[in-house]
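Here we describe the complex-level prediction in full. Unlike the single-chain runs in Section 2.1, the two entities below were treated as one system.
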Amino acid sequence: MNMKKISLSILSLGLLVFLAPAQSAKAQSATDTLAPQVTTLRDKISGVEERLATAEGSLDKLTKIKLSGYIQAQWQHFEAANVFPSNYVTIRRARFKLQYEPAKGVALVLQPDFQPSNFVIKEAYARINEPWLKTFSLWVGKFNRLNYEVEYSSSDLEALERSRIITTLYPGEYAIGAKLEVTPPSIPLKFQLALFNGNDGQVIPDATGVNQNAADNKDFDNYKDLMGRLTYAFKLGRWGGLTLGAHGYYGRVRATTDTLLKSDYTKDKAVGIGSALSRNWAGVEAQLFIDVLGGLVLKGEYIMGVNAFPGFNSTVTSSPVFTQSINATKDTVTQTYTVSKTTSIAPNIRRNFSGFYVYLVKNIGKRNQFTIRYDKFDPNSKLGGGDLGIKAYKAGSTKTTTDKNIIGAAGNVLVTKNVNTTVVNNSLTSGTADLAYSQISLCWSYYFDDNIKISLNYDIPMNEKVGTAGKVMSGSYAAPGGIASKYDYSNLIKQNILTLRLQAKF
Amino acid sequence: MKRSNKIKTIAGVILLAVIAFAFMAAPKKITVKGSDTLVILAQKWAEVYMKSHPEVAIQVTGGGSGTGISALINGATDICNASRPMKQSEIDKLKERYGSLGVEIRCAKDGITVYLNESNPVKELSIKQLSGIYSGKIKNWKEVGGPDEAIKLYGRENSSGTYVFFQENVVKGDYAASCQTLPGTAAVVNAVKNDKYGIGYGGAAYSKGVKQCLVKKDDKTPAYTPSAETIKNGTYPISRYLYMYLRNRPTGEMKNYIDWILGPEGQKLVVDQGYFPVR
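The structure predicted for the assembly as a whole is:
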């Protein structure tokens, strides 16, 4: 047995000794053949790596640019008698947002709104985030005013459009200014403080109805408006969360005439032209998020304060009118150039106002969302419906003075220039500007996918009924048959709007 | 019909529609997307659960925590796996879209492991040294007791929760530009396995074929390796929870699946796959 094992071992050893050099030579030959191929492959990989590094460099630059936007196209049907055509398709918004981050914590944002007949820069700002505490950020340019519904993206609005009080106080949503935002990373608190020009989107009509505040890109006066907002988000365990907040507005606008009226249309005091009229208000907000078979949101805001509306003081000068009179008895000729200057004056007024909105939003699954909103805005909370059309400021009578100047005399010819100056003091009567409105909005949205949303919305606005004695009427409109007609606000005017909107977002 | 009656009718119809939709049966297909750290475990959970519940189809994909959270917000997934908590901005998006703050479920724990090549003589590193290495201040192994060779950094892409967690808790600043980003922890492990002077980080469950570096909080404390014990007692300095996020509180089959994950069977799989249980 042992001999057998020994014989096998010797045989194996012999084979190994015999075969080993052959195997070694074979391996060496294979290595020699593969070596150039490995070198070639290594060079190729190095080349690919180099190209990849270049491509990554270019790609890194592209990742600094973020593009987003949305288009809202809608068909609307208006039940109001003064709207013609009563139904049409429009492009409500066509936004394109470009964000470029040249360095970490720095962002430049530009958001134009394209419409078939209009192009507006809605947003244009630079934002710098402080890198150490990651808490503070500074914004300069044109950005959203500090309010919950204003800052809520128009593409996410559950009732398609913002509440009446918000669109009145913050027309166009965006304003030019500078903002400091404090958002500590570990605390669900947000504090914002901003300084704005303060009159973005405000319409301040003159005697002919032309907006005195038409220069959107600069201020109407030297006064700047201060705005602040603070919110804190509480968690309600596994049920959801509650966010509470408040915002305040401290603003001023210049007086354009020397009279200031109170909410009840009585004279408050004499003010200097150019002096400051207060625009101060404060609001409280709450958003409750509850998880009951899908997200359920109950949210609202109440705002009250005083808003000022400058009057107007505008003068129209007519072209000189030439007249000539001959006095045959005295043998003299009098040539007269008459210039008429008409100055229209309307008083400034400040109105106490209040308003609120409440939303109930229910999400069903991933795709369906139902919303009911009730909002109310009373632009003059000191006057009831029965006061409208009655409370009024009676201005003094119209006065005309003539200034006669002899501007030349030659022989028996006398040349004079007469300047007729007429001052029209406009009275101001309470009316449609003081009319309170409430509105119910019902909306169903279907999220077809991440990009497409279809919404069906029905708005039911309800005007405050004024007393029959006040006779508050709207401007004329062509009723069916071409007969000029007016709304009588002692009735509830039918002004409901049905909207079917398609939104594509990217 | 009077206006008030009309409004009441419309409100009534909407309310009925809401109730009808609310009680519609939940689908039995569940999609899961997100953290690459969790993907192995999530796939195992799905595989085992589907065996005992053949009527349920569970589809699991990775892509990173950020990708998963985006998918949760845009409705592309039912469950998001994440290796970091959701940011306030992400919760805000969820609130705007679904009226919900989302539901956070802690489903496992993980120790972020620092991978070294088997041949690397360095055995332990402090958090400060790791910060120096990944921020690019320490460039050579000899500065931390190793050979005189340049350190090669491997890490994750910025959509990864592990990337964010490691940055916030270890690097505490920006990553060095030389850090090579790779798509997934498995790719990081593979890179370190093939690079003698490489260093990487990722979930403990992936550390096969590489050396786990011991980590110490500072120079005065001992160094630890991630284990069930060191993670439970908090001595391993880079441990974290792993999360599942849902849009709303789970109902139906989704609830059964989540309950099963948090139950003994699901948590046993956590341990089997190299993670650490939450219970």
